[in-house]
Amino acid sequence: MNTSGLLPGKVVLVTGASRGIGEAAARLFAQEGALVVLAARSTDALTQVVTEIRADGGTADAITMDLGDRASVRAALDQVAELHGRLDGAFNNGAVVQQPGPLDTTSDDEIDEQFAVNFRGHWTAMTAEAALMRRNGGGAIVNTSSIGSRRANPVLPAYGAMKRALNSLTESAAVTWGGEGIRVNGITPGGTETAMIDQWEAATPGVVAMITSSSPAGRMAQPREVAEVAAWLLSDRASMVNGAIVPVDGGAGA
Question: Which member of 91, 159, 177, 200 is catalytic?
């Protein structure tokens, strides 16, 4: 494997690692020298990614985890401890998207799911990750938020609200844990070519064209382009970056 050494020997957990940005991140982190632990609900998809990373000379393991289940999240971190005895970095990327539609048609069940996965799931993961990081003097956490958290989000109101809450949680954790050597940052991707965007386009035709036309870059991001920013934030090269919410949107949010 061609390793540039951005994350040499670091144990890094990636949630939502079975597809999209999470999958791209797992592959990239391994190329950068990390010992990657992939977590998601889809065991078969995870196993395939792990097999391919290992075939390329990387180090990777898979853990089945449901962000909406607090016990599952904590059990996953216990498994990381069993595998490696430590945790140096965590990319909390797992999420669930809501059915597009205005606020007054968003169901109670959708709101509950958004809270359980996109907010509480991250809260649970972050506290468990920090506890494991403390064993070895610290680490770095990166949370995936969304450009939709930075402004009104009338089409995905519950999703946007939970992602905005995640921004606040990220900043609070950065201040709370910074003295312990644990850095916490967030990224807010704009339109990215993932299955989530495909779902949104199927439900609301024209979304892809709208996102593309609103970006100064004139296109959507590739998942690896977003993962590159997360890799840097997890690395020692970002040692003084803490509590930042970094846009990764080609200028769409400017």
Answer: 159
pLDDT tens across 146-176, in order? Answer: 998 988 988 889 999 999 999 999 999 999 9
Q: Which stretch of DSSP H or E encloses residue 175?
A: helix 157-177
Report which DSSP code applies to 158. H
Of 26, 35, 36, nearest to 230 by C-alpha is: 26
Average pLDDT of the segment spanning 209-221: 84
CATH number at residue 214: 3.40.50.720
- Active site annotation includes 53: no
Residue 25: give the domain boundaries.
Answer: 11-247
- Amino acid at residue number 78: D
Asked, for residue 51, whether it belongs to a domain, the answer is: yes
Judged against a pLDDT cut of 60, whether residue 2 lies above it is answered with no
Residue 23 lies in a domain: yes
- Partners of 140 in the β-ladder: 89, 183
For residue 6, is it within any domain?
no
Tell which residue, 169, 184, 89, 78, has the closest CA to residue 136.
89
Whole-model pTM: value is 0.93
Is pLDDT of 134 > 50? yes
Q: pLDDT, tens digit, for every residue of 4-55? A: 589 999 999 999 999 999 999 999 999 999 999 999 998 899 999 999 999 9
> Can you list the alpha helix ranges (DSSP code H) found in 32-69?
43-55
- Cα–Cα dist 231/117, whole Å: 23
Average pLDDT of the chain is 93
Domains in the chain, number:
1
Whether residue 67 is contained in a domain is answered as: yes
